[in-house]
# Entry
Amino acid sequence: MGHFVTLILFTLPLFSLGCFGFHIEETIYKTHGGISRRNSRSSRAFNVDDFGAKGDGRDDDSQAFKKAWAAACSSKAMIPVIVVPKSKIYLLNPITFSGPCKSNLVLKIFGTIKASPKRSHYAKDGRHWIKFENVENFRVKGGGIINGNGRIWWENSCKVNEKLPCTLAPTAMTFVGCKNLIVANLWFKNAQKMHVTFQDSMNVKVLNLLVTAPGNSPNTDGIHVTNTHNIRIKSCDIRTGDDCISIVSGSKNVEATDITCGPGHGISIGSLGANNSQANVTGVRVNRARLSGTTNGVRIKTWQGGSGYAKNIIFQNVVMNNVTNPIIVDQNYCDQTKPCQQQVSAVQVSNIVYKNIRGTSASAVATNFNCSRHFPCKGIVLQDIDLVSEEQGLEAKASCVNVKLTRKGVVSPHCSKY
# Structure
């Protein structure tokens, strides 16, 4: 088994450290603003300040972080430790931390990492701010803050000002090609676009994250999952301007439990099949979620003209509070200014279970299946559904177009024909 590298950023912890399903013997202790270490030939500290970091929130500390990472990643010590002292703000330009390393990595973030506000710094790669790639047995935790400093990006978004050209904006933190990964006890705030993305990765745990951005910030998805297998998202509080959790093509065996969502666009599978592409998502379970004031609740969205499938999905034990579209499947999704062309092909939506979902709908239609005529939704089960109108005196309705469904228990509202 490999060794451990620990990257530590110190400040007051925001969350209590939980049990992550693994054990690491800590050899670093906080002492009056610094650290003390056991005298052991097996541990070695790499303080970013020793590599030139200022931590004043003004000077660029990117090179210091790169040097500290490189030194620890190549170290043969049993526990190389990258230390970023507390009570400082470390300003970073776009930066990539690459593996594989000689030891397993543990990145502890107790302080604040803040993004450079200068858009010109992202000219080489407009999609990423902080990126980790090809790292195995990696742990990122600590209770610190990842601040995307995104306001300048939102103000220049075509979704805020239609007169502006639509350009790329970076994701705050991206994990690419990682295996056996844990990300826990962090606060992601004000991302330039998406907050944290898991891409082409396997065996991932995401625990106790707080994700926040203004409700009107464009495209600021909380947690985005793409082409990733075996990922568990648990006990996360997400309040953003877009999907709290978005799950897109290539993702398999995704579990989201104890999720608090709102404001935002809800918990979404998709969009899938854009530009006549093939998309496959299977094995998704959302259990114990609470959504408040979101534009959608649990949603599946696919474009016309796509192919592939979204199947074997369970939404259960979900509470809605003033949600505009509590249950929605839209196989005619069209996120563009001009109308989308009518097409025959579609991503097949099948074997979807909605169980024990209750609460209030901000719109007249609480349950909405807008499915394809040529590829109707099938194998849909509604069990123990109780959705009522947020507006007193109005009755919530259901709309079911091109869907084959089964009702179990009490289902309200329900379609008389489908």
Observations:
- The radius of gyration is 23 Å.
- Confidence is low (pLDDT under 50) at residues 1-41.
- The chain has two helices and 31 strands.
